[in-house]
Amino acid sequence: MEPKIVAINGSERDGNTAGVLRHAAAVAANRGAAFETIDLRDLRMLRCGPCGDCNDRPIRCEQTDDIPAVVDKMIAADGIIYAAPVHGFGTSSLMQTFIERAGVGYLRFDRPLSNKVAGVIAVARRYNNSDVTGQLMANVLLNRMIIVGSGFPAEVQALHKGDYANDEEGLTNVTRMVERMVDMIELLNNYRELTGRADVLDVGDRNERVGLALDELRASL
């Protein structure tokens, strides 16, 4: 079965982050894996609304934009990459909005990304790469995905468009990350095929929201 990786590009432009993801796509293709990049800048993405019932509702967000289609692609994939530039010493506003909308409105009910293989890429001129890596990594762990150890973090230094190509070490780390993601996806898929188990790892209670009996709420609808 062909491994499939979906990359979320949190950059507002077709610049260095997009270039790094094209590099990642080439690495994946060389391994026989499908790779799709979703550019958040091209989506209709609303901010979280004033309803305030996210902690109580047992069903998807009611806002109508492009987020549910992206979430469905992530659920159908074997691997997820979050890639974002550093803006204002933190992650880009597009990526922050996506994390909030997707996480609160679609992913928190039963953690459908559990056991997906994940990778994180941060792109910056020089500063705060690790802060963005840490923020995106925390989201990976929140959604119970599997992060692969690939040596140094996949952090690329770049300022002007195209500068990413000059960061040989950064691109080497991206290559290692993608290679290891494909390795882990293949390992998990082989295990599923041999055992017939859909869940290769027990993630326990998928609804960690305090005081919300999810099954009871769904049964009452």
Automatic annotation (TrEMBL):
Pfam families: FMN_red. Gene3D superfamilies: 3.40.50.360. Keywords: Flavoprotein, FMN. InterPro entries: Flavoprotein-like_sf, FMN_Rdtase-like_dom, ISF_SsuE-like. Residues 3-153 form the NADPH-dependent FMN reductase-like domain. SUPFAM superfamilies: Flavoproteins (SSF52218). It comes from the Bacteria. This is Flavodoxin family protein. The lineage of its organism: Bacteria, Bacillati, Actinomycetota, Actinomycetes, Micromonosporales.
